[in-house]
Amino acid sequence: RKEVEQDPGPFNVPEGATVAFNCTYSNSASQSFFWYRQDCRKEPKLLMSVYSSGNEDGRFTAQLNRASQYISLLIRDSKLSDSATYLCVVERGGFKTIFGAGTRLFVKA
Amino acid sequence: DADVTQTPRNRITKTGKRIMLECSQTKGHDRMYWYRQDPGLGLQLIYYSFDVKDINKGEISDGYSVSRQAQAKFSLSLESAIPNQTALYFCATSEGTGGEETQYFGPGTRLLVL
After folding, report:
1. Contact A100 B107 (CB under 8 A)
2. How far is B30 from A44, CA to CA, in rounded Å?
3. Do B105 and A45 touch (CB under 8 A)?
């Protein structure tokens, strides 16, 4: 079993839709959590960090559930420009950063 | 100009050849990393360096070596390339202040080993 697992998708949604991705992690010692975005053939870029209290950045909301060991990303009012692969990233102590394989999102007009 | 640059951007080589991928950064970060990305897999850490004198193996270091020539430069070598090293390679940096560490990635090098 992979330490960080994501549904690979693709998720195909119309513009304006709300879409949510989940990511599960297996190591309960994991300390920090992030969502990165990767456009086709480009480098990953940080989208947002994920906190236990939940955090929001515009149309994006991230949540962490430590008890069930998953993080989520909610995108509201999807735009064409949101089409990308979303990478779940989990960091343990002693430097160990694990990247999920990513969830592909296609937003169509 | 980009903060993290990689050269070459694309490379085709033959089995058994030695090649070097280079990474430079202008962010002033202490920490640098090399990853490879294969279709359907997450980024896999090859090597990382917390400063010029500190080099550490990642999860898939076999067949690779690195050199940290300066704070700003971190190169990855494939001593004898093989076809299953065909992948997209990313260099990344982070500040190294501890706690949550945002990583900043270079544009990637596409390597094809024939």
Report:
1. no
2. 20
3. yes
